[in-house]
Amino acid sequence: MTDQLIRLLGPGQVLTQKEDLIPYSFDGTPVFRQMPAAVVFPRSAAEVVAVLGVARQHKAPVVARGSGTGLSGGSIPVPGSIVLCLVRMDRLIELDARNFTLRAQAGVLTQAIYDAADAAGLFYPPDPGSMKISTIGGNVAENSGGLRGLKYGVTRDYVMGLEVVLAGGEICRFGNKCVKDVSGYNLKDVFVGSEGTLGIVTEVLLKLLPRPAARQTLLASYSRMDAAAETVSAIIAARIVPCTMEFLDSKTIRCVDAYAHVGLPLDAEALLLVEVDGHPAAVADDAAQVARICGENGATSVRLAADAAEAARLATARRSAFSALARMKPTTILEDATVPRSELARMIRFIQETGARHSLEIATFGHFGDGNLHPTFLTNERDQAEMHRVELAMREIFAFALELGGTITGEHGVGLAKKAFLKGQMGEASYNLLRKLKATLDPDNLLNPGKIFDT
User: Fold this and answer.
1) What proportions of the chain, in percent to the nearest 5, are helix, strand and coil?
2) Which residue among 72, 113, 145, 435 has its CA within the 20 to 30 Å range from the CA of 18?
3) How far, in whole angstroms, is CA 224 from its chain's centroid?
4) What are the CA-CA distances from residue 239 to residues 21, 242, 346 (Å)?
5) Is the pLDDT assigned to residue 154 strictly greater than 90?
6) How far apart are CA 373 and CA 369, in angstroms?
7) Residue 157 CB: number of other CB atoms within 10 A?
């Protein structure tokens, strides 16, 4: 099989030696690891078709991969698999400023897409924490979110079209530049968030927006976590929709400040980082109202960024949360249970109580505006007894999130990490529909088998 791949693509596009394969045996998720049989680097959809032809001939599984930043194990190889790494499909094909669209191959970095849009006076809103190194194909496969999800939504909301290679080698194209198109089934959205289990995304057509003319960032400190949660509800009730509304608990605050040195208040139980954007006059008014609402709901201090540089430093505080926490213990497990905003305080208290009950260290931060929390387990995967307690705590946290009307994942995807909990959220009939769709599009079960659900 590997000889065929080398003949097809050339030796510079195929890895087969063990030491070369090791970096592709894991992703951003701890615990999961598996060596593939080979890693290939196609440069076009035609080469993807050729690789899938070899895979079908040898009944070898194919696992698509971008930069490997995923946090649910979606790009972990399976035994005997070919890892289809799309990072060399990195051409930004077209930026159409008249139609507010951008077309790119799957391997283009998310940051490069944001920068290209920004240079044209436009705006690509989705901003996963890994955007400097994650690829747009990976974002589409996982339906990635980010800090700006409250106001602007997630990756799905910006995908206007896709080029997808199916398991049988067919190249399909869905969508176009038309703002309105209701012809046929909405097949495009079937592949967004499908984690490479239904087809290989090779090209993406994205919607862009006009770049906001102004931004203002505020940092509010709280001595009570409940007060921070109440503030979020009060801001939304006032008909203000911030660009971002981020939360850090006390443990995260201390770790972040030790890491990023941004001068956070170390005695706070909770911080809210709020950014409003839009027309300058509206931004000034919204910022003043947000500051007032924070004060009325128990903020001990409210700090407005004096300029863009300070706003960037405050944003860095939130964006560096995972990196800061990862220094604390050998293993850092970042989860993303999500609940309705009205249930945030209950959910955070439950996470804290669950950590104490199982003698675990859990820090929590996340996107308060859209209810997406990141309970982060600071642990050691070599300690089997502790890892067992982590698993028990996770089960309890996800079960409680569902009880509150939430979801097991707001932006990380299901992959390997969450598949045991999916049926509990979806119910039998909906869960079986997923399996039927998989069997229809990938009857030989070659594309990323064992992810999302067992097959």
Assistant:
1) 40, 20, 40
2) 72
3) 29
4) 51, 10, 23
5) yes
6) 10
7) 13
Cα gap 81→37, rounded to integer Å: 5
Tell me which residue has tokens 């000034």.
284
Specify whether the CB–CB gap between 338 and 418 falls below 8 A.
no
Domain 329-420 has CATH 3.30.70.2740: yes
Please report, as a single letter, which amino acid is at residue 431. Answer: Y
Give strand ranges (E) for 19-158.
38-40, 62-65, 82-85, 92-96, 101-105, 122-123
Tell me what percent of the residues of the chain surpass a pLDDT of 70: 100
Residue 313 has pLDDT above 90, yes or no: no
Q: Which pair of tokens denotes residue 168?
A: 């049988």
Instruction: Decide: 441 and 200 in contact? Cβ < 8 Å.
Output: no
**Nearest-angstrom CA–CA distance, 386 and 99:** 53
Q: Which CATH architecture has domain 2-85?
A: 2-Layer Sandwich (3.30)
| Other C-beta atoms lying within 10 Å of the C-beta of residue 178 | 11
Position 297 pLDDT exceeds 90:
yes
Domain boundaries, the chain: 2-85, 93-210, 214-322, 329-420
Q: How many CA atoms lie within 13 A of 298 on its CB side?
A: 17
pLDDT at 424 exceeding the cut of 90: yes
Q: Do 2-85 and 214-322 have matching folds?
A: no
Give residue-wise pLDDT tens across range 29-77. 988 999 999 999 999 999 999 999 999 999 999 999 999 999 999 999 9
How much is the pLDDT for 343? 93
pLDDT at 300: 96
Task: Provide the edge-to-edge strand list for the sheet that holds 372-379.
Answer: 299-304, 214-222, 270-278, 244-249, 361-367, 372-379, 331-334
Would you say domain 214-322 falls under CATH 3.40.50.1360?
no
User: What does the pLDDT read at residue 395?
Assistant: 96
Q: What is the dihedral of CA 204, 207, 212, 213, to 10 degrees?
A: 100
CATH numeric code, 93-210: 3.30.465.10
